[in-house]
Write a structure and sequence with these properties.
Elements lengths: L2 H31 L3 H25 L5 H21 L3 H28 L6 H30 L1 H22 L12 H7 L3 H21 L2 H8 L7 H26 L1 H22 L3 H15 L2 H16 L4 H29 L4 H35 L1
């Protein structure tokens, strides 16, 4: 594999770290800037909205630009956003910094796969994409807990400085190693995206994605304060617990992909969503105990992200049937749906924390995931109906 691919992987690692590390720093940021926990939680929501807007809109707007120029511009924006977060004099400037980095994140993963495949021969394309996305998985396993620990020990600003340095190294590596005149694919037009957004079956899957992910982030956004204020952990322990969660996520992602291959995406997603709802409900009670909280978080991680492969595969399968000329666009919009879910879940979590108890985020998140289960079941029913109609037509 070419060295340029590892520059992309480092970029993915830095971007993945900056997205999720905020979860472990919510109480620290709230205390330092003198804002409420829900206000600090908004930093998760607004980043996710930046990704959701950046992925489809900016990808379409930069579709005719040179790929390497787009990549370097994105990483420069990412570094600038994190440097602004490091030096943010106020809560409002930190919000601006998060939105800027979110915009960079959205476009990076839209074009990153295209660049990765253009660096290798046809028979190695899937492996190239897998290596690049490994950066995201490794970020959850090591970057987020390490960033959380740095934030707890040296202050939250130090975390953003370290991520800026990582982004700068990735930027320099990409500038040196990524070749010029990369293969330019046909730009994704806004009209193609509108075609996808008028397909009811795809809209249903986007709703499954947003609601399923949103349910998790109702509680996950406030995991650190729950562990500190309810479970009684010291703030210095949060990084270690995030490590446990990250390892579980990595295992769950692989397991979720294999389950979707074996059972089909709809059956796999029904199983994962039902288990996720149960785990969140249980966390409402186990959060009171340190051992119970850690064990529940360990299981939670496996199911929280285990739905990602199934949802992505399902979107591609339906897009091939309903919008065959816009499969990539449909897949990209599902990434936006994930982030709409994160934003929605974080906001709902903030409202709950404002008016109710911290642990109420868990059972309400479970109820939202049950809705994702119901939507998945309905989508499976529509699939069966379509298959029966096709069989009748053939006979």
């Amino acid at each position: 594999m070419p060295l340029a691919l590892f520059a992309l992987t480092l970029s993915a690692f830095a971007i993945g770290t900056t997205e999720f590390v905020i979860v472990g720093l919510v109480p620290t940021i709230a205390a330092d800037l003198g804002v409420s926990l829900p206000s600090a939680g908004l930093l998760v929501s607004l980043y996710a909205l930046g990704v959701a807007v950046g992925a489809p809109v900016l990808t379409a707007l930069t579709g005719r630009w040179d790929r390497k120029l787009v990549l370097l511009t994105l990483m420069a924006l990412f570094v600038a956003g994190n440097l602004l977060a490091w030096q943010a004099p106020s809560y409002e400037s930190l919000i601006t910094a998060r939105i800027l980095t979110g915009l960079a994140h959205g476009v990076f993963f839209s074009i990153g796969s295209t660049i990765a495949t253009s660096l290798v021969s046809k028979d190695k394309e899937a492996s190239a994409i897998a290596i690049m996305f490994t950066g995201l998985t490794v970020a959850l396993v090591t970057g987020v807990p390490l960033g959380t620990w740095i934030g707890q020990e040296l202050g939250w600003r130090a975390t953003f400085l370290v991520v800026s340095v990582l982004g700068l190294i990735a930027l320099i590596g990409s500038a040196i190693l990524v070749p010029k005149n990369l293969k330019q694919s046909a730009p994704a037009k806004i009209t193609d995206q509108l075609k996808v957004l008028t397909q009811p079956r795809l809209l249903l899957v986007y709703a499954m994605t947003a609601v399923g992910y949103g349910g998790t982030f109702v509680a996950f956004t406030y995991l650190a304060p729950i562990l500190e204020q309810v479970s009684g952990f010291a703030s210095s322990s949060i990084g270690l617990i995030m490590l446990v969660y990250g390892v579980s996520v990595a295992v769950g992602n692989i397991w979720g992909g294999k389950l979707a291959d074996k059972m089909g995406p709809v059956k796999a997603l029904q199983l994962i969503f039902s288990a996720l709802a149960l785990v969140l409900l249980v966390f409402t009670f186990t959060a009171q105990s340190q051992i119970g909280a850690v064990l529940t978080v360990l299981i939670w991680g496996a199911f929280a992200f285990g739905n990602v492969p199934g949802l992505q595969v399902y979107v591609v399968q339906l897009a091939e049937k309903h919008t065959p000329n816009a499969v990539d666009v449909a897949s990209g919009l599902n990434i936006a749906a994930f982030n709409v879910g994160i934003a929605f879940g974080s906001v709902v979590g903030g409202v709950i924390v404002e008016d109710m108890a911290l642990t109420d985020t868990a059972w309400i998140g479970a109820a939202i995931v049950v809705l994702a289960f119901a939507l998945t079941r309905f989508s499976g029913y529509l699939d069966k109906q379509a298959a029966n109609q096709l069989a009748e037509c053939k006979s």
